[in-house]
Amino acid sequence: MAVSITLRNIIKKYGAKTALNNVTLGVEKGHIHAIIGTTGSGKSTLLRVIATLSVPTLGSGYINGLNLGARQNQIRHQIGYMSQDSRFEESLTLMENLILHGKLHGITQADLNNRIGGFVKRFDVADKLSSFPSEVSYGTRRKMEFIRAVLHNPSILLLDEPSASLDQGCKELMEIFLREQKLRFTTVIVSSNIEQVERMADRISILDEGRVIADGTLAELKETDRENRILDLTLSETHERDFNILDASAQVISYTVQGNRYEIITEADVPPETIIALFHERVIQAIPRLPALADIFKRMIKAEAMHE
Q1: What is the pLDDT of residues 142-200, one digit of tens each?
Q2: Any idea what the CATH number is for the domain that residue 249 is in?
Q3: Does the residue 274 lie in any domain?
Q4: 274 and 146 together in one domain
């Protein structure tokens, strides 16, 4: 499979702060590659580096074979970028914003009209074209920003939290489009919606404090936890001694507590009944499950923090 994006040992510093720390990454053509991480982990900075909007302090990269440092203008014409922040020209209507974007990418007026008409119909915003950005809802702005990102038919699509704070209908519209058009784009998506990442991503990179601490397919990441099992336990009441009980149990790898709910990680061969017996008649509900991406993410971030 051809690789559309290659980053090697990317370092990005802002003064004394290191936003990206030796990031090496490859994204295959026609794949959806998700970047997840905590706030401030460097996700948006990484996307801006790929978009040529931020110059790395050190390191190298290639976008569709073009050198990231030397061929910025050519690269930008091949990229559709949707940032977290709205970047509309506020003095122009939404239609004028889309036309301006299309013209900058050399699209003829007739072709632009056809493309815009198709997209606004699909995303149910045709009646908003004559409005100014400040006159429409946040959801409409985000849909228009998504349309602008794909309008010039880029080969690479960079999406920074595209569905954050949107209603379920808007999220589904975007996801359906990305699935249908998957082979047209190489997509890198930054998302805090772990369930969305599980549904859509071909490959996932986890960032923590500017470093890639894990990278692989969902199946490969889950393989790292294949020997673990999680027990979601709800108790009628909690006692201070519960922590001592869990700490002393050889079957318990780790646990978290929220109110009267315990998330307990054990090895896979530990029967749930063994843990349930520790709490006797106080157990209201006990649900055993295998780790999901959210569990893997939390474990890896916690492990990194312990190594600091």
Answers
A1: 999 999 999 999 999 999 999 888 889 889 999 999 999 988 999 999 998 898 999 99
A2: 3.30.70
A3: yes
A4: no
Count of residues making up the chain: 308
Cβ-count burial of 281 within 10 angstroms (0-12 exposed, 13-18 middle, 19+ buried)? exposed
Residue identified by tokens 């889950």 is: 222
Residue type, 95: M
Domain count, the chain: 2
pLDDT at 290: 77
Domain that holds residue 191: 3-222
- Regarding whether 178 and 100 lie in a shared domain, the answer is yes
In the chain, the amino acid numbered 227 is E
Q: CA 8 to CA 13: how far, in whole Å?
A: 16
In this predicted structure, which of 44-58, 89-103, 214-228 has the lowest mean pLDDT?
214-228
298 within a domain of the structure (yes/no)? no
The domain that contains 146 carries what CATH number?
Answer: 3.40.50.300
In angstroms, rounded to a whole number, what is the distance separating the alpha carbons of residues 86 and 93? 14
Instruction: Record the tokens describing residue 160, joined without a space.
Output: 């920074």
Q: How far apart are CA 69 and CA 10, in angstroms?
A: 12
- Together in a domain, 22 and 148: yes
Span 45-73, mean pLDDT?
A: 94
Summarize pLDDT for 233-286 with one digit per residue, the tens.
Answer: 999 999 889 999 999 999 898 888 999 999 998 887 899 999 999 998 899 999
Helix axes 109-122, 138-151, angle to 10 degrees: 140
In a domain, 124, yes or no: yes
Q: Indicate the average pLDDT of the chain.
A: 91
pTM: 0.82
Q: Residue 88 — φ and ψ, nearest 5°?
A: -75, 150
CA–CA distance, 52 with 227 (Å, rounded to integer): 41
